Amino acid sequence: MTVDTDTSDASQYRRRLYQVLAEESVTLSERVVAALEVGREYLGVENGHVARIDRDRDRREVYLSTGDADGVVTEGEVSALATSYCRVTLERESPLAMSDVPAEPGWEDRYAEHGVGCYLGVELTLGEETFGTLCFVDRDARSRSFTEAERSFAELVARSVERELASARYEDRLDEHREAIDTRERRLERSERKYESLVETAPDAIVLVDTDTEELAEANAAAADLTGYAERDLVSTAWRELVVGVAPDDDDVGDRLVDRLVAADGPVDSHPDGSPLRVRHRDGSAIPVEVSASHVTLDDGQYVQAVFRDVTERRERQRELRLKDRAIEEAQVGITIAEAGEAEDPLVYANPEFTRLTGYDREAVIGRDCRLLQGERTNGGTTAALGEAIEAGEPVQQEVLNYRADGTPFWNEVTVTPVHDADGDVTHFVGFQRDVTERKRRETLVSVLNRVLRHNLRNDMTVVRGHAALLASEYDGPVAESGETIAETAEELVALSEKARTLEQVADDPGDPAERDPVTVAESVVDRVREQYPEADIAVRTAAESVPPVLGTDRLERALFEVVENAAQHAGAASTVRVVVATDDDGVTVRVSDEGPGLASNERAVLDGRSETPLEHGTGLGLWLANWIVTGIGGELEVVDPEGEGTTLEVGLRTATQRAVEAGEPTPSAIGLDD
Q: Are 145 and 56 within one domain?
């Protein structure tokens, strides 16, 4: 309920107002609340409060409050400025006084929203800035209007609160200023300590040279490390004594060098003649450096601060890069570099051999991709495989029919490898091109001759065998024996032809690598050989509790068959052949031993010397085939000298686990090496 007060009490309330504002033992907020309480009592309303205003954010916040107005005014409450009573107060030059808000035209919405029946508000300003409003409110309307004395008293309270707020702000700013000064001084002190610490711990050599004496006034630990002198020994040393190429008594050269270092936009690493800028080490060596320098003014005079950085490793890298550049430029293989991520992977580099190989000038290919080498007979499947690998960022090699600038076709062995940045992203592709036209021509010729000879050999041997059989059946004695010899020789030639064909097939299709059980493979081979040599004693034995699987192709069984069959054939009809499967540190071994006359020297040469010379006579082709297969899966086939008679061949195979760890697939070994 509002209470009407007599203006005769105004002087009494003014004294109370001055008293509460003069109380220094309480906080600013407590003094402002006490002033609001005096005003609230004088005006006879439920509540007095100060609201802070933010025009830019259309925000009103109840800053301090006193009295009862639950549900109408709550300290800390935030509301929209636009629909508040305070908004209207700020638009007036005098206090806004409304004793009966519900009866005021146009105030229905504000009254419905806020529930304030009477309101007396004054704007609070601090200098040119609006702080907020000082408001006295009641939920009920007053029976009479606010008098001039009441409005004046409200303004008095507002001006008093403004002075308190301004004084507090001034004190705060004064404290902030003092704190800022203290902070700057502390920062300056910390900065000086930090600078000294940074100079001392900096990885680069830093020296301070007195411009009057041209001697070092200070030097950090890195400078001592760079020169080999102790820090204390560097101080008072003439800087000219430390720089190679500057004589101690050559003032002109020294002055020009200092001026050049100071005037440079960045570090300097060479003299005007291009020779490297070097620092003389205590041991007499010269260290290449780059130097940055600047004039500095200190309390006791003028100095030059110089920062030296050892560029030995950089120069080594530069020399290495120059070497690599020369190697690429002079390589006898075409080399290109293409930028990844672009639509067509344009070339950014091509070496001279590429231009010689293709006939295109370097300027004609930069910015284009290698598709310019393709033509009407280029195999689309091959180029698609290249494109898929490049798209996936994987290395790839293909033989592609390309065309030179003049239209001449040539076979190009293309190898493309992705280049990754530090984050693992593909940034470029490097391509290698090698002309393999002559090799492809020879391969084609050999293939044609091979087919013709094999076809004619089979047909002609059929005729020879027929005539030999006729001689053997129609005649007796030496003629019949000659017929049998002819027939046997023909059979051997046909078998030799078939074995050569098998070798060709193995070379063309080595098979897919997979885990193989060596014991199972050996047992299968022995069963097959027993069928051919039923009188022979052939057995398999395992010399280990467990034999791990090996990583090989389906050709492995053919290789072991050739070795076991060779042993049974040369040992005789009733021979003894033992196959032992064992393990050692290198993997799995399959040892095949017989009691025959021993391996002929020409067949031993196939394995010991890795020589193909005996094959010219057709001898040892089976062992050659076995050796080809075994070495193709990263294994070995060698002759082991037995203690007694006979022959022992050992097949060394790597386990699947070893291969998976090392490469993930078989790595072929070299053959055809002569001792």
A: yes
| Chain Cα centroid distance, residue 316 | 25
pLDDT given at position 154: 92
In a domain, 656, yes or no: yes
Q: Would you state the pLDDT for residue 675?
A: 41
The pLDDT of residue 59 is above 90: yes
Of 435, 455, 485, which one is at a domain's C-terminal end?
435
CATH of the domain at 156: 3.30.450.40
Q: Is the per-residue pLDDT at 618 higher than 50?
A: no
In 3D space, the residue among 292, 317, 295 whose CA is nearest the CA of residue 304 turns out to be 295
Q: Residue 11: is it exposed, middle or buried by C-beta count within 10 angstroms (0-12/13-18/19+)?
A: exposed
Is 258 within a domain?
yes
Q: Residue 189: pLDDT above 70?
A: no
Report the Cα 524 to chain-centroid distance in Å: 50
Q: Which of 150-154, 291-295, 499-503 has the highest mean pLDDT?
A: 150-154
Q: What is the pLDDT of residues 551-566, one digit of tens each?
A: 888 888 888 998 998 8
The answer to whether 133 and 123 have CB atoms below 8 angstroms apart is yes
**246-255, 452-461, 593-602, 638-647: least confident range:** 452-461
pTM for this predicted structure: 0.48
C-alpha span between 122 and 247 (Å, rounded)? 84
Domain boundary among 435, 451, 468: 435
Instruction: Name residue 270's beta-bridge partners.
Output: 276
What is the rounded distance in angstroms from the CA atom of residue 15 to the CA atom of residue 36? 14
Q: Is the pLDDT of residue 371 over 50?
A: yes
- Give the CA distances from residue 571 to residues 127, 568, 639, in Å, rounded to whole numbers and listed in that order: 120, 5, 16
Same domain, 16 and 117: yes
Rounded CA gap, 631 and 651, in Å? 10
Q: Which amino acid is at 587?
A: G
258 contacts 302 by C-beta, under 8 angstroms? no
Checking if the pLDDT of 500 tops 60, the result is: yes
Whether 34 and 105 map to the same domain: the answer is: yes
What 3-state class would DSSP assign to 494?
helix
- Predicted confidence band at 166 (pLDDT cuts at 50, 70, 90)? confident
For residue 265, what are the domain limits? 202-315
- Say yes or no: 149 and 21 in one domain: yes
Rounded Cα distance, 65 and 530, in Å = 111
What is the reported pLDDT for 605?
A: 67
Q: Please give the pLDDT value at position 370.
A: 86
- Mean pLDDT, residues 45-73 taken together: 89
Torsion on CA atoms 212, 214, 215, 221, rounded to nearest 10: 110
Residues 493 and 459 in one domain: yes
Q: Are residues 479 and 614 in the same domain?
A: no
CATH number for position 393: 3.30.450.20
Q: What's the structural domain count of the chain?
A: 5
Question: What gap in Å lies between CA 242 and CA 255, rounded to an integer?
Answer: 15
Same domain, 336 and 301: no
Distances 517 to 157, 579, 581, 583, 648 between C-alpha atoms, Å: 103, 15, 11, 13, 22
